[in-house]
């Protein structure tokens, strides 16, 4: 069935997100914005810029670099922070590997996605960040649908689904005990379409891999994987060139491409509305089990 | 595009999750891969139909027990509206979650199993929706397929529900009754023709035409200051703006305002939204307000218009819903957070606890337990600029925070 596309961004969502960001800056001593280079964190940066204008964004961006990022994402990240005059902190998963805190996965499904949790938790501790602002949305996944806007984590970064604080009206309680920190999700109530419509309305730049481009890929388990030196391939997995784009920005080892000709924002949005596969369906890390996301969240995953 | 927030409530097995699944399904909001996962999961459970309830029961514990234990948020949109559903469980032990889900809703959706009629949980749901003054109430009489789509059965339930309405404190709710079958999709988003005696709108048609609460214009103007923006850059050297979200009413450039608690007066010089200059800030808009005069205001203060100033209260009487395992103790000090403003508060007296299924007051209580709703008086250390909830809901609610473990332990509405 064909969808009628609504190009209008619901303004109430921006007002709500700005309110949340201002509460975060006011209620916490040292917030930080978790930046992945993906469209959701780009949206957060825009919201932060608007929330404190004409003042400066009162917190830094933290990027946990797995070392397996798309080069286009890193280029974009550096361009963005320069252009907007933001502070950027980068922490590397490679360092956690070198320190022996985590071990590289092996086999053809090896990815550093699970490893980055350790690097993130170390960075939070080192930077004494009491609030980490993230671009997670409740529509992405069903365990996320239950997460609060101010989501309290214990000192191991763990999320306890059964012990969540109630959130009433728009009243946000950011009081925490020593050792705890809070994950803040200002765009909790946005859907994927809302984010795209916002990017369109605000005329935001996004990394080029979101648009259709030709690249080397392999086919595995019915999904198109970007071919790179980070991906462990078997002999029969021969890379070929194909016009594709990415719906999310993750690691090159765990983000599948979709066949696409969409090279304009409008085409991307139209494609999403017609899409037969949901957004996280192209995230290989979620496919591991039905409860994959909830388990990772309990372990402190973002 | 407008956003409509709906709170659903229902008993464990009255088909609430199926109804939501049905709404998503009929508005094409379920992507193909999720649909396939749903088919497969249903098959694994030995079901001969696709269990749409599996879409929303998100947590492992819930999938195991087959119940919903927290507030889940579900999103769908039509060409005209974006919908946010807060799906809350109906068990008595989850009253606090129901209150949480209902606190942001414009529509309360109450489900009744056509075979069972009004049950204890229906009373509780209705009580909470009424207490929080949710403007629209949709009563869906579900599982009509299991009573042969019988009109008399539906009418009986409507009549029973009218009695509930008659006993309610707040009479201003618009109430709509719709006979549905969420399993077969009857009257959810479409008609299948099984209920030809019902001429009214389907659930979705009804939601699409619910008119938005524009009575904000009659609510007093309230602007809680979240922070003061002072860039101190060359370009904005003398800029001093108050950042916040309009809680209620509206403000215009040129309006005379009073800053609370200082009582200092000034006029609005500009209303700014990033690089845009606005002439009016409406309710729920996040803006920055600058004033003609340098006045001393900071976070937690409130800008209001002259001529409609809230009472500065140090004693508050409220309906309180207790949400914590540890009981409310008479005489104990908590932190009271009204909007963004925190003050110390002590519980002076518990007047009575309400039996939400019979609407009876139980006097002589000295404590309140998890999921109790009662009537209390609190004394605050500093004045609070709150309105009576019935007169201005957006400025009439607060939470209580435990000073020792920092948890949110209660929500209250001023009376």
Automatic annotation (TrEMBL), chain A:
The keyword Nucleotidyltransferase applies. Residues 31-256 form the Phosphoadenosine phosphosulphate reductase domain. One of its GO terms (molecular function) is nucleotidyltransferase activity. Its EC number is 2.7.7.4. It holds the Pfam family PAPS_reduct. It is an enzyme of class 2 (transferase). InterPro entries: PAPS_reduct_dom, Rossmann-like_a/b/a_fold, SO4_adenylTrfase_ssu, Sulfate_adenylyltrnsfr_sub2. Keywords: ATP-binding, Nucleotide-binding, Nucleotidyltransferase, Transferase. NCBIfam families: CysD, PRK05253.1. Belongs to the PAPS reductase family. CysD subfamily. This is Sulfate adenylyltransferase subunit 2. It comes from Chitinophaga qingshengii. The lineage of its organism: Bacteria, Pseudomonadati, Bacteroidota, Chitinophagia, Chitinophagales.
From TrEMBL, chain B:
Its EC number is 2.7.7.4. Residues 1-218 form the Tr-type G domain. It holds the Pfam family GTP-eEF1A_C. InterPro entries: CysN_GTP-bd, CysN_II, CysN_NoDQ_III, G_TR_CS, GTP-eEF1A_C, P-loop_NTPase, SO4_adenylTrfase_lsu, T_Tr_GTP-bd_dom. Keywords: ATP-binding, GTP-binding, Nucleotide-binding, Nucleotidyltransferase, Transferase. This is sulfate adenylyltransferase. It comes from Chitinophaga qingshengii. The lineage of its organism: Bacteria, Pseudomonadati, Bacteroidota, Chitinophagia, Chitinophagales.
């Amino acid at each position: 069935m064909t969808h009628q596309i609504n190009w209008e961004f619901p303004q109430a969502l921006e007002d709500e997100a700005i309110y949340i960001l201002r509460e975060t800056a006011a209620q916490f001593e040292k917030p930080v914005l978790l930046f992945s280079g993906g469209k959701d964190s780009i949206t957060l940066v825009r919201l932060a810029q608007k929330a404190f204008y004409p003042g400066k964004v009162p917190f830094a961006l933290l990027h946990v670099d797995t070392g397996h990022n798309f080069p286009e994402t890193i280029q974009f990240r550096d361009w963005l922070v320069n252009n907007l005059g933001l502070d950027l902190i980068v922490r590397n998963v490679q360092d956690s590997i070198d320190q022996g805190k985590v071990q590289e996965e092996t086999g053809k499904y090896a990815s550093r996605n699970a490893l980055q949790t350790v690097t993130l938790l170390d960075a939070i501790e080192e930077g004494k960040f009491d609030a980490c602002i993230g671009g997670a949305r409740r529509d992405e996944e069903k365990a996320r649908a239950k997460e609060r806007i101010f989501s309290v984590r214990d000192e191991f970064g763990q999320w306890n689904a059964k012990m969540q604080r109630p959130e009433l009206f728009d009243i946000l309680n950011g009081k925490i005990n020593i050792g705890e920190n809070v994950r803040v999700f200002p765009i909790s109530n946005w859907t994927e379409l809302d984010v795209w419509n916002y990017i369109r309305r605000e005329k935001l730049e996004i990394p080029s891999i979101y648009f259709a481009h030709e690249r080397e890929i392999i086919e595995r388990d019915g999904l198109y994987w970007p071919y790179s030196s980070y991906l462990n391939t078997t002999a029969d997995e021969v890379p070929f060139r194909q016009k594709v784009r990415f719906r999310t920005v993750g690691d090159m080892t765990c983000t599948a491409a979709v066949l696409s000709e969409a090279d304009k924002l409008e085409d991307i949005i139209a494609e999403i509305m017609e899409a037969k596969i949901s957004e996280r369906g192209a995230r290989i890390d979620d496919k591991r089990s039905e409860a994959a996301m909830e388990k990772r969240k309990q372990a402190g995953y973002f | 595009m407008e956003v409509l927030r709906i709170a659903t409530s229902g008993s464990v097995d009255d088909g609430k999750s199926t109804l939501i699944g049905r709404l998503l399904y009929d508005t094409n909001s379920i992507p193909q891969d999720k649909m396939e996962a749903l088919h497969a999961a249903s098959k694994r459970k030995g079901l001969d139909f696709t269990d749409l309830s599996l879409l929303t029961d998100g947590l492992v514990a819930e999938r195991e027990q087959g119940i919903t234990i927290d507030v889940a948020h579900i999103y769908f949109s039509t060409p005209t509206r974006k919908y946010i559903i807060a799906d809350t469980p109906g068990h008595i032990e989850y009253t606090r979650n129901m209150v949480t889900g209902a606190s942001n809703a414009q529509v309360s959706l109450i489900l009744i199993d056509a075979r069972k009629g009004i049950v204890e949980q229906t009373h509780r749901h209705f009580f909470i929706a009424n207490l929080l003054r949710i403007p629209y109430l949709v009563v869906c009489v579900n599982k009509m397929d299991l009573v042969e789509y019988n009109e008399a059965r539906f009418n009986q339930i409507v009549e029973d529900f009218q009695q509930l309405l008659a006993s309610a404190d707040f009479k201003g709710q618009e109430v709509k009754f719709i006979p549905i079958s969420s399993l077969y999709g009857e009257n959810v988003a479409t008609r299948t023709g099984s209920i030809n005696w019902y001429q009214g709108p389907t659930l979705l048609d009804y939601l699409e035409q619910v008119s938005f609460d524009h009575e904000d214009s009659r609510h007093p103007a309230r602007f809680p200051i979240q922070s003061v923006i002072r860039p101190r850059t060359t370009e904005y050297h003398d800029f001093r703006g108050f950042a916040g979200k309009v809680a209620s009413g509206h403000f215009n450039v040129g309006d005379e305002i009073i800053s609370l608690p200082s009582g200092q007066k000034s006029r609005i010089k500009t209303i700014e939204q990033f690089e845009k200059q606005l002439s009016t800030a409406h309710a729920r808009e996040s803006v920055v307000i600058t004033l003609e005069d340098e006045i001393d205001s900071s976070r937690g203060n409130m800008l209001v218009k002259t001529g409609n100033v809230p009472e500065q209260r140090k004693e508050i009487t409220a309906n309180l819903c207790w949400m914590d395992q540890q009981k409310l103790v008479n005489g104990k000090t908590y932190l009271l957070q009204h909007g963004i403003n925190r003050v110390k508060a002590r519980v002076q007296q518990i007047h009575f606890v309400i039996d939400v299924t019979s609407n009876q007051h139980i006097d002589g209580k000295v404590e309140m337990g998890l999921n109790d709703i009662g009537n209390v008086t609190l004394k605050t250390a500093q004045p609070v600029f709150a309105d009576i909830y019935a007169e201005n809901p957006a400025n009439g609610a607060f939470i209580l925070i435990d000073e020792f473990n920092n948890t949110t332990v209660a929500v209250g509405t001023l009376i």
